[in-house]
Design a protein that fits this description.
Layout: H1 2-19, E1 48-52, E2 68-70, E3 73-76, E4 81-84, E5 90-93, H2 97-100, E6 105-112, E7 121-128, E8 136-140, E9 149-156, E10 160-168, E11 176-183, E12 188-193, E13 196-201, E14 215-220, E15 247-254, H3 260-271
Antiparallel strand pairs: 1-15, 2-5, 3-4, 4-15, 5-14, 6-11, 6-15, 7-8, 7-14, 8-9, 9-10, 11-12, 12-13
């Protein structure tokens, strides 16, 4: 009788233990909260005018405009997939009216690229159909290294205005978040790496609301004149310019200069896949 009792109790205990869920410590952890935000999409949502996640597609999820691919593919990104560049490869997209009418802006993106070896690396361009440089042109300059990353930002306002940042460290060989803002009220250009400001200043002649002219396509993966055909009549391909052979991800464009806190929160949230 005792033997049957013990067998019955063992069966009951085994049955109860099999119904219990395995203890998961993460389920008791507090929800991620950075600056009061739990997701990148919560930051300045009314000011987000374009967003390319590159999560296996080339869609701007704000305007629903589709990009056109030349030679690029997709790789593993900071969140989901990313745009994988290559030599002679790029993506073109038609900008929305909100993009072409920007007066202030913040551009944020994640890049993972080796330093330039064959020419400057184009990261983002809002092309100008008649000028040498685009209305907005962002690229990594020749000679950049992890000890001295050289970023160049061209903004057209009654002619080309250039903001140059040198001595950026650890810009290559891993995922980093890059943010660039222009504030029409102050005329201030700011550059952030991984959510921290690395440069701020003004450019002679660059002040007040932007007024882009002869606006053409958006270009990802090179500068505006390295496409085939060139996006501008101002020049064709140059020997000292090249292509992004690394990766690009989570490109966001806002119609205001985000605060430094907002840019920091955005970088931290995206780094955590949020």
């Amino acid at each position: 009788m005792k033997k049957k009792y013990f067998i019955l109790m063992a069966a009951v205990v085994l049955g109860l233990s099999s119904c219990q869920k395995k203890f998961d410590p993460s389920s008791y952890a507090p929800a991620l909260n950075i600056g009061g935000f739990t997701n990148a999409k919560q930051i300045a949502p009314s000011n987000l005018i374009a967003y390319w996640a590159f999560d296996g597609g080339l869609i701007d999820s704000v305007s629903n405009g589709a990009g056109t691919n030349t030679g690029t593919s997709f790789g593993t990104g900071i969140k989901g997939k990313s745009l994988q560049g290559a030599a002679n490869s790029y993506v073109l997209a038609t900008p929305s009216s909100k993009v072409t009418s920007l007066s202030s802006f913040t551009l944020t993106e994640w890049i993972n690229t080796p330093p330039p070896s064959n020419g400057i690396i184009g990261l983002f361009s809002l092309s100008n159909k008649t000028e040498f440089w685009g209305n907005i042109e962002v690229f990594v300059e020749n000679g950049s290294t992890n000890d001295n990353g050289k970023l160049r930002i061209h903004i057209n306002k009654g002619g080309d205005k250039t903001y140059a940042v040198d001595n950026i460290v650890n810009l290559f060989g891993k995922w980093i978040s890059l943010a660039i803002s222009y504030d029409a009220t102050s005329g201030m250009v700011k550059v952030f790496v991984n959510g921290s400001r690395v440069s701020a200043g003004t450019v002679t002649g660059l002040t007040g609301p932007l007024t882009f002219t002869n606006t053409g396509n958006l270009v990802f993966g090179t500068v505006q004149f390295q496409t085939t055909p060139s996006q501008t009549t101002g020049t064709s391909k140059q020997d000292w310019a090249s292509f992004l052979t690394g990766q690009l991800d989570e490109v966001r464009l806002y119609d205001k200069a985000l605060s430094e806190d907002e840019i920091g929160y955005l970088s931290k949230l995206e780094a955590r896949g949020k």
